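Write out this protein's structure.
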Amino acid sequence: MENQPFLLPPDPHFVYMLYSPSHDVYYKGYTQNPGKRLVQHNTGESRYTKNKSPWKLVYLQVFEKKSEALKRERILKRQNRPFIESLLTHKINILDQLDPDYLVVEKL
């Protein structure tokens, strides 16, 4: 049986986690465009992450409402590392279910 493509809501809101191998640290955030946001983190456009690149997108959770996503982001920012790392392989992490082209950002 083939896997069905993951269908996003019409106006998706995402909570994401990035990992910096060079600093062994996770960053959690909210966005509507995960591919673009990852580029921003890796090009120094975010104050906290600019000196810790390169960043890798390791977690993505989708919500229909912005308020739900922001609530989840606040919860994740308060969690300890073992909990955060347990989410990386949890079924709510949709990263491996998305079409990889969804995260591609066109060069300007």
